[in-house]
Design goal:
Shape of chain A: globular
Number of strands of chain A: 16
CATH superfamily of the largest domain in chain A: NAD(P)-binding Rossmann-like Domain
Structural class of chain A: alpha/beta
CATH architecture of the largest domain in chain A: 3-Layer(aba) Sandwich
Distance between the termini of chain A: 16 Å
CATH class of the largest domain in chain A: Alpha Beta
CATH topology of the largest domain in chain A: Rossmann fold
Number of helices of chain A: 9
Largest interface: A-B, 35 and 36 residues
Strand content of chain A: 25-35%
Oligomer: homodimer
Largest sheet of chain A: 7 strands, mixed
């Protein structure tokens, strides 16, 4: 028998186990042109909380009574599809089910020899692709330039900073504790770090850490932290708007210093993005990230929980900060 | 005797006539390798307000007690320079003086037969190049897209809108009087116009004029007008930050709704620029603009003020919206 995890009730406030339900059903059978997939690793991510509500956003909400979907690595256990063979591994947006059938649409084959399978949900998945594509397609950092990263100790931020170092930049990270700043420098090779929680004057702190100014700013937070960075941007600088966690819980549009004069005076670019904008670059990006991983140039931290039955709890634990780095469930 | 106009005092807030002073001096005499120029047309432009302050910017501030400099078309009245002959006309950044000597550095000869001399301060000068390069290099408008232009009745704005029409866009202009809106539609072929001075809800007005949303926004004003446009931007939209006249006379950084969440949600780009960033594209751009001008596809409106003594007032009038199209002074 097959098992799946459905959205039983939409949460109000913090989700709980009662929002999920397990269902048992007959094993699915692949039709012509389809294949049968067995789930290996499931990604649990904070953004999924948004999909549990029915508010309009750039990804549609989960449907009540339907299986939750998200990043999954699965093994092909039977195939009636010309392009996939039994024993292949695939990655993509799939259901929280032990087994499921697929036409292969939207799935990418992954190589379990080149990297651990779980990496395709993290460094070689959306996390790494967000860092790589945002930085390279928008930031276009050049050797010798200065890159500042906010949310630098997060999954995306830590990868951004490491890529910056590989590309020859001076890299300065902004994070919220001295311990995180220490980690950025010792584990990820950042040149300097700023603990914004103990810094009164962000603009001055950035100026002190970036004697040649800031050429590229990869922003995960926005808010007053970013205002301090903006004031140090060099002419023709690039601001990559990846996240704005400082504002996610605000109920009205927050106010801040207007950016237009600053953009004009220094010919600055600001560009928001979601990673799927750059889907055409994913194959080359995954290849580059995998190479750096194999060469030991990229460090990536994971928390791996075991067991299909523990997926909902692993998701809930994200909101308690139980994970170090990317949280995945091994099925 | 020669006359010149100097910066007498730096303005705080809105400039006034008292910031300028007229000085009389002996006629300059060209040395070997120099020529004597007689000013024919002087360009007055909003960006010059920035140079009157001593804040750091992309162009150095005017110096106190020195002649103001800007775009000028002048006639060679005497020449000790091999490359220039008496009777030639030249264009470039020159002083607000009746006569001046020059080595010819940075000057371009212009052809008064091919186009009216004043056009070299407008459609075929920085104004047209700013419109063309900003729109094509940053906005990249596609046929069928919707282009909104603020400051649409201004020199740059009216050219931007016409280029948008040539490229097959729906073009909506924002300006400050019903008369200007009428001109946009009848003279420049805009599809629709919004008088921001009689509009309470800019966001709703833009939505009504742009049923398919806004793909490209060429912004000359910033402020609350732009906030209304921003709320109608389509996914992957481009905002060209060319000017921010709403804020030029403000003495502190103005506050407004933060843009980061908006940029991320819709994958928007904002890019500030000055036209010299695109200098490599100028020859092709001038050729294209001249061709459209000859084909009758581009209308260009000028407000010509007569008299050297009226240059400061003409400049001040820019901030009262007294001009239709490019403001120049015929000396």
């Amino acid at each position: 028998m097959n098992q799946r995890i459905i959205l039983a009730h939409r949460p109000t406030g913090t989700p709980t186990l009662s929002n999920f339900a397990f269902e048992t059903e007959a094993m699915p059978v692949p039709a012509d042109g389809e294949m049968l997939l067995e789930t290996c690793y499931v990604s649990v991510d904070p953004y999924m909380r948004g999909r549990m509500s029915d508010a309009k956003s750039y990804v549609p909400p989960f449907e009540l009574g339907q299986a939750i979907t998200g990043g999954v690595v699965a093994k092909v256990t039977a195939s009636n599809h010309a392009a996939f063979t039994e024993g292949d591994y695939v990655m993509g947006s799939l259901a929280w089910q032990l087994f499921q059938v697929s036409t292969g649409e939207g799935l990418t084959k992954v190589d379990g020899e080149a990297a651990p399978l779980s990496a395709y949900l993290g460094l070689l998945g959306m996390t790494g692709l967000t860092a790589y594509c945002g930085l390279s397609e928008i930031g276009k950092p050049q050797a010798g330039e200065t890159l500042v990263v906010s949310g630098a100790a997060g999954a995306v931020g830590s990868v951004v900073g490491q890529i910056g170092k590989i590309l020859g930049c001076r890299v300065v990270g902004i994070a919220g504790s001295d311990e995180k700043i220490e980690t950025l420098q010792t584990e990820y090779g950042f040149d300097a770090g700023i603990n914004y929680k103990t810094t009164d004057d962000m603009a001055a702190a950035v100026a002190a850490s970036c004697p040649d100014g800031v050429d590229v700013y990869f922003d995960n937070v926005a808010g007053s932290v970013s205002d301090g960075v903006y004031r140090n941007m060099n002419r023709l600088g690039r601001i990559i708007n990846c996240g704005a966690i400082a504002h996610y819980n605000e109920t009205s549009v927050p106010m801040g210093p207007r950016v237009e004069m600053m953009l004009i005076k220094n010919s600055l670019l600001m560009q928001g993005f979601i990673v799927s904008n750059y889907a055409e670059h994913f194959p080359a990006a995954v290849q580059q990230l995998a190479q750096w991983l194999q060469q030991g140039k990229l460090q990536f931290s994971e928390t791996v929980v075991e067991g299909f039955e523990n997926i909902p709890q692993a998701f809930l634990d994200l909101f308690q900060g139980a994970n170090h780095g990317k949280m995945v469930v091994k099925v």
